[in-house]
Specification:
mainly alpha; 0% strand
């Protein structure tokens, strides 16, 4: 089994370099045109010259050291990188907007409840005052 290991490692590197070259955008390939790199990888893959040359000289350099992969270029042509939700100002702004909407709805409902309770208490007081002025109400209105 161990005698097949070098062959399998060479084959794995060959396949990796070939697929990596195919998936790399044309603008990011260094040195030669992409089609030239594909032929170099395929023709010189058995002796590891093609895949190693691709990994060393043709593959694009990774500019950012940590985190996510870059997003594809947008319509405006700017590179965008992945940003965590708690660092994304647009996401945080949307949370604040949603919170304000919910708070305003809750505040409005609470205010309406308070106004209805106030009206009910005022009506109770009016009834009690009218009743005591007529001599019908024997109990004074509650304090507080």
């Amino acid at each position: 089994m161990l005698r097949y290991l070098p062959f399998l490692l060479i084959l794995a590197l060959w396949i990796y370099a070939f697929i990596d070259c195919l998936n790399t955008p044309e603008k990011q390939v260094r040195g030669l045109p992409k089609i030239a790199w594909v032929f170099i990888i395929l023709l010189f893959g058995e002796v590891l010259i093609g895949p190693v040359a691709w990994l060393v000289a043709g593959r694009p350099r990774r500019e950012h050291a940590g985190g996510g992969a870059p997003w594809p270029r947008g319509a405006r042509g700017t590179d965008r990188t992945w940003v965590a939700p708690d660092d994304n100002p647009d996401f945080l702004r949307s949370l604040k907007d949603e919170g304000k909407k919910k708070e305003s709805k809750n505040d409005e409902a609470l205010l309406k409840d308070w106004e209805a309770d106030l009206r009910r208490r005022e009506e109770e007081l009016r009834r009690k005052e009218n009743g005591s002025a007529d001599g019908e109400g024997g109990t004074p209105p509650p304090k507080g």
